[in-house]
Automatic annotation (TrEMBL):
This is Hydrolase. The lineage of its organism: Bacteria, Bacillati, Actinomycetota, Actinomycetes, Kitasatosporales. The keyword Lipid metabolism applies. GO terms for molecular function: 1-alkyl-2-acetylglycerophosphocholine esterase activity. Residues 1-21 are annotated as: Disordered. GO terms for biological process: lipid catabolic process.
Length: 385
């Protein structure tokens, strides 16, 4: 029995993602982007290099296979270093999960397609936001999900080269040096993400100029540090029309509810439309950086709380963690500690509805069913602050 428990034949959990709900099938390509004007901030002697996934509405997906959520190299890196501390190592087959995006399928070019960028949380790969990126593409958006190299757990480049996160070592060093070094590391991490995003915006502009994409408004969203990056980029770069922040603090602090060390977007606010969606206990009344952003912003804005949610509820963890727990016999506290008590289907449905409605309103000029105007009986889990 002991040999079976530790041997290579032990069963590993396999998961499925929820299918997108929009009218379009989804196509995808992965692109390596190199910013030759910028040295890599984490590794000396290299230009900054990124991987992005582009999701889009497809004209046809026949003969185009569905892509995995993570490559084998990315899955191995994610298994070693992830934000799900209570999960056992080498017991989850992260590379077995298939997305609903079809590799290389031809794009549906009927009409302009608004572009939405996605940035994940610190340490997370771009693929941990697949449910929402596939969803937006199924509703006609072109979605560009960005991996922040050496921040993300693991990034696999063409040819099989895998670059893993440097942040655990950087954080350990900063802790030894003291609080000022920790704040400096947070500031650097945020600045690198914004610079990455602005470079990706340059590439989107090039696609517009070359006619590969029809020119259209651009929005951005992200979870945790990715939500911070979305709003900070909107503050720094006028090319972002609207930004949604899924439970991302906007200050260089160790706890969302700590005062001080505000980012410039929190100090200055923004003029364009913004959406805040927080876990249970995070809203502008008790997150100082959100309160500052709210008070200094002049545009349309909403502050929503998903009752029963935890921080990772705004990632694919919402659907994946309960499946892993069932297959591996993990305690219920592991699930609720990571993704809260809100049922997965309800959490996913609410995120899809509100994020899509936000971009529909501000990138397409379509208020739709006025979901963002006030509380809805369809989503009693969502509280308007």
């Amino acid at each position: 029995m002991a040999a079976d428990a530790t041997g290579p034949t032990r069963r590993r959990a396999r998961m499925k993602l929820p299918a997108p709900t929009g009218p379009y099938a989804v196509g995808t390509v992965s692109l390596r982007l190199v910013d030759r004007r910028r040295a890599d901030p984490w590794v000396a002697g290299r230009s900054r290099e990124l991987m992005v996934d582009v999701r889009y509405p497809a004209r046809s997906v026949a003969a185009h296979p569905r892509v995995p959520q993570m490559t084998r190299g990315e899955a191995a890196g994610f298994d070693r270093v992830n934000n799900f501390g209570d999960l056992p190592k080498d017991r989850v087959d992260w590379s077995a999960t298939r997305t609903f995006a079809h590799l290389g399928a031809p794009i549906d070019r009927r009409g302009p397609r608004p572009v939405v960028l996605y940035s994940p949380g610190v340490g997370d790969p771009r693929t941990l936001g697949t449910t929402l990126t596939d969803e937006l593409a199924s509703h006609g958006y072109v979605v560009v999900a960005v991996d922040h190299t050496y921040d993300a757990s693991a990034v696999e480049f063409p040819g099989g080269r895998v670059e893993t996160t440097r942040l655990p070592q950087e954080f350990e060093r900063a802790l030894k040096e003291g609080p000022e070094a920790v704040v400096a590391l947070m500031e650097k991490t945020s600045a690198v993400r914004v610079a990455d995003t602005r470079f990706v915006l340059d590439e989107v502009d090039r696609a517009f100029a070359e006619g590969r994409l029809e020119r259209a408004p651009v929005g951005m969203f992200g979870q945790s540090a990715g939500g911070f990056a979305a709003l900070q980029t909107m503050h720094d770069d006028g090319r972002i029309t609207a930004a949604a922040n899924l439970d991302g603090v906007l200050a260089y602090v160790s706890d969302d509810h700590d005062e001080g060390n505000l980012s410039s977007v929190a100090r200055d606010g923004v003029d364009g439309p913004l959406l805040l969606m927080g876990m249970d206990g995070d809203d502008r009344t008790n997150v100082p950086s959100w309160r500052a952003l709210w008070e200094h912003s002049d545009g349309w804005r909403r502050d929503l709380v998903l009752r029963g949610a935890q921080h990772a509820t705004y990632t694919d963890a919402t659907s994946l963690i309960p499946q892993i727990a069932r297959q591996l016999g993990l305690p219920e506290e592991t699930v609720t500690g990571l993704v809260g008590t809100v049922p997965a289907a309800r959490a996913i449905g609410a995120q899809r509805a509100y994020v899509t409605a936000f971009f529909d309103r501000w990138l397409r000029g379509d208020a739709g069913g006025h979901l963002l105007d006030g509380p809805s009986a369809r989503f009693p889990e969502v509280r308007f602050v």
